[in-house]
Amino acid sequence: DTAVSQTPKYLVTQMGNDKSIKCEQNLGHDTMYWYKQDSKKFLKIMFSYNNKELIINETVPNRFSPKSPDKAHLNLHINSLELGDSAVYFCASSQDPLTNSPLHFGNGTRLTVT
Amino acid sequence: RKEVEQDPGPFNVPEGATVAFNCTYSNSASQSFFWYRQDCRKEPKLLMSVYSSGNEDGRFTAQLNRASQYISLLIRDSKLSDSATYLCVVNGDGGFKTIFGAGTRLFVKA
User: Fold this and answer.
1) Residue B98, pLDDT score
2) φ, ψ for residue A97 (rounded to 5)?
3) Fewer CB within 10 A of the terminal residue: chain A, N end or C end?
């Protein structure tokens, strides 16, 4: 009965590969997000979606392409992986950002690019 | 100027101490404010929302000063289990852009 679940938990891959991270929330929330937490532990927003529509794209390289097939899912596909993509990627959701709703996070996906 | 700024610490305090964290934000149109807690290798979790009138949850007190664009968190009677990184969080852009500060590390020692 996990609220926000993302898979895989760990991902180790080589430079140049393409990989995907999946995220699902069963909270009935309208808004979903992807965050990246780098080695310095800084948590930076990448994308936010509301009812499957892209709302925020925070100057993320085109190699990152989010896909939201429905409002319960927000997947992240990364093409041509680079060393600098190594980080922990967190998916999150919120009920209604306009009404002080907090974020609920998944457990994170630790991506290592070698 | 960063959108949300916090003192990174670390703060090293003994059990039972009172410790305060501060945070400033740059967007005066920000609407919602939170403190989150993140344990090592875990996801961030909501500690408390921050309301204009200030609010308290047990040993934790949060304050918001909109005029100064300043948020604070006070922890009283620190416990070992309070050791974590505390993240100041601000909503902007109609609420869809939730910005995290870099976090303040707290170590509570016996």
Assistant:
1) 86
2) -60, -25
3) N
